[in-house]
C-alpha cells in the first residue's frame, strides 16, 4: 500500500460507494431478510428467501475465490477466529430475529427505509445503535461476557473455525472445494424454481448483494492490508483492524460514536457503509419518486419498534453480526458461528411471526 497516500481513506470511500449501490439495489428490489422469512412462514412464498440464499451462495463463491487467488487472507477476520462463542451466537441470533420482526426489518432494512423517508427507522436507528454501544462498552457487556460467553459455553480450537478447518482440512484447496460444493448446492435449490428465474428483482438483488460482499473483502483485505513499523500485519480503515465486509449492527453503533466524539474518531469502512446505504436508498426513492414520509400509527407501534431495536442491538453484538453481517458476510468465510447465527435469526423471526399471527387471530 506504499503507492497509496491514504489507504484508510480509500477503504472508507470504497465502502461508501459499495454500500450506496447496495442501498439503491435493496430499495429497488425490496430486498428484505425479515420479509423473506415472513413470506415463507405466512404465505409459503420463497422468492425473497431464494434471493437471500442467492446472495449467500454468490458471496461464498466470490469470497473463497478471492482468498484462493491470494487477494485476502480468510483467516484474518473476526468471524474465523478459533474461539467459538456458540451459545452467544445462538441466543444473539434468536434475539436479533425476534427484534427485527418487532421492528419491521433488520439493520440494513432500517437504513434502506430511512433513506426512503420512513421516520420509524430514525427511532430504530437510534435505539439499535445505543443498545449496541451499551453491549459493546457498557453495562450490557456484563451479561454477554459472564453468561452468553461463559467458558462453559465456549469452544476453543487450535486453528480457525471454518468448516474445512474443523474437519481437519485447513489448506486453501480444501477451503475452495468446500465453498464450491456448498454454493452449488444452494444455487441448485435457488434455481430449481422457475418462478424465481422470472423475477428479475430477486435475481438482481441476490447477485449484486453477493458481489458487493465479495468486493468488500477485496477492499479491506487487499487494499487495506498493511504492515506496521514492527512488521506486524494490520488492516487499515476498519474498526476491527482486520479484514471486514458489509455488516450493520456494529457500524451503526460506531456511527453514533463517531458523531459524539468526532475529534477523536475516523470514518471507517463500516461507518461509511452505513451512510452509503442511506444515500443509495435515498437516491433511488428520489429518482423513481417513491420517497414518502412515514411515521408510527400508534404509541403501541412505536413501543414495539423500540423494543425490537433494543433486542437487535444486544442480539447483533452478542452474535457478532446480523442478517447481512453474519448470514452473508460471515457465512461467506464458512465460519461455524455464522451458520449458528443464521439459523438463530431465522428461528427467532419465524417463532415471533407465528406468535403475532396467533395473537391477531385471538383478538379478532
Explain what the structure shows:
The chain has 16 helices and 4 strands. The chain is mainly α and 364 residues long. It has one domain. The strands form 2 sheets. A two-stranded antiparallel ribbon has the order 1-2. Strands 3-4 form a two-stranded antiparallel ribbon. A hairpin with a 5-residue loop joins strand 3 (225-227) and strand 4 (233-235).
Question: Which terms summarize this structure?
Answer:
two-stranded antiparallel sheet; about 65% helix; mainly alpha; about 375 residues; two-stranded antiparallel ribbon
Mean pLDDT, all residues? 94
What best-fitting shape do the alpha-carbon axes yield?
Answer: globular
**First CA to last CA: what distance?**
63 Å
Order of helices and strands: HHHEHHHHEHHHHEEHHHHH
Quick structural summary:
The protein has 364 residues and is mainly alpha-helical. It has helices at residues 7-29, 33-43, 47-68, 86-102, 107-115, 120-137, 141-148, 163-166, 172-190, 194-198, 200-223, 249-260, 269-287, 299-318, 325-330, 336-363; strands spanning 83-84, 155-156, 225-227, 233-235.
Secondary structure topology:
Layout: H1 7-29, H2 33-43, H3 47-68, E1 83-84, H4 86-102, H5 107-115, H6 120-137, H7 141-148, E2 155-156, H8 163-166, H9 172-190, H10 194-198, H11 200-223, E3 225-227, E4 233-235, H12 249-260, H13 269-287, H14 299-318, H15 325-330, H16 336-363
Antiparallel strand pairs: 1-2, 3-4
Amino acid at each position: 500500500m506504499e503507492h497509496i497516500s491514504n489507504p484508510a481513506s480509500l477503504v472508507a470511500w470504497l465502502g461508501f460507494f459499495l454500500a450506496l449501490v447496495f442501498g439503491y439495489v435493496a430499495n429497488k428490489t425490496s430486498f428484505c431478510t425479515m420479509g423473506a422469512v415472513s413470506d415463507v412462514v405466512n404465505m409459503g412464498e420463497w422468492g425473497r428467501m431464494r434471493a437471500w440464499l442467492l446472495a449467500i451462495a454468490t458471496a461464498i463463491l466470490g469470497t473463497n475465490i478471492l482468498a484462493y487467488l491470494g487477494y485476502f487472507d480468510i483467516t484474518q477476520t473476526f468471524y474465523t477466529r478459533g474461539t467459538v462463542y456458540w451459545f452467544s451466537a445462538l441466543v444473539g441470533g434468536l434475539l436479533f430475529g425476534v427484534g427485527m420482526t418487532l421492528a419491521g426489518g433488520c439493520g440494513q432494512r432500517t437504513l434502506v427505509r430511512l433513506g426512503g423517508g420512513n421516520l420509524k427507522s430514525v427511532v430504530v436507528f437510534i435505539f439499535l445503535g445505543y443498545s449496541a454501544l451499551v453491549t459493546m462498552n457498557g453495562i450490557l457487556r456484563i451479561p454477554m461476557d459472564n453468561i452468553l460467553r461463559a467458558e462453559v459455553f465456549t469452544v476453543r480450537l487450535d486453528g480457525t473455525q471454518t468448516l474445512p478447518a474443523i474437519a481437519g482440512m485447513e489448506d486453501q484447496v480444501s477451503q475452495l472445494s468446500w465453498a464450491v460444493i456448498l454454493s452449488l448446492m444452494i444455487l441448485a435449490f435457488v434455481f430449481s424454481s422457475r418462478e424465481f428465474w422470472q423475477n428479475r428483482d430477486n435475481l438482481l438483488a441476490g447477485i449484486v448483494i453477493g458481489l458487493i460482499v465479495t468486493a468488500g473483502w477485496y477492499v479491506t483485505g487487499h487494499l487495506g492490508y498493511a504492515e506496521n513499523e514492527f512488521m506486524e500485519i494490520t488492516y487499515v480503515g476498519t474498526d476491527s483492524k482486520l479484514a471486514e465486509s458489509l455488516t450493520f449492527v456494529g457500524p451503526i453503533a460506531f456511527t453514533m460514536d463517531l458523531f459524539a466524539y468526532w475529534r477523536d474518531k475516523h470514518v471507517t469502512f463500516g461507518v461509511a457503509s452505513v451512510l452509503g446505504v442511506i444515500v443509495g436508498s435515498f437516491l433511488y426513492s428520489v429518482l423513481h419518486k417513491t420517497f414518502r414520509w412515514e411515521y408510527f400509527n400508534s404509541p403501541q407501534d412505536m413501543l414495539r419498534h423500540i423494543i425490537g431495536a433494543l433486542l437487535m442491538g444486544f442480539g447483533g453484538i452478542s452474535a457478532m453480526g446480523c442478517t447481512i453481517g453474519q448470514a452473508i458476510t460471515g457465512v461467506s468465510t464458512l465460519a461455524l458461528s455464522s451458520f449458528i447465527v443464521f439459523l438463530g435469526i431465522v428461528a427467532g423471526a419465524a417463532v415471533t411471526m407465528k406468535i403475532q399471527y396467533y395473537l391477531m387471530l385471538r383478538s379478532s
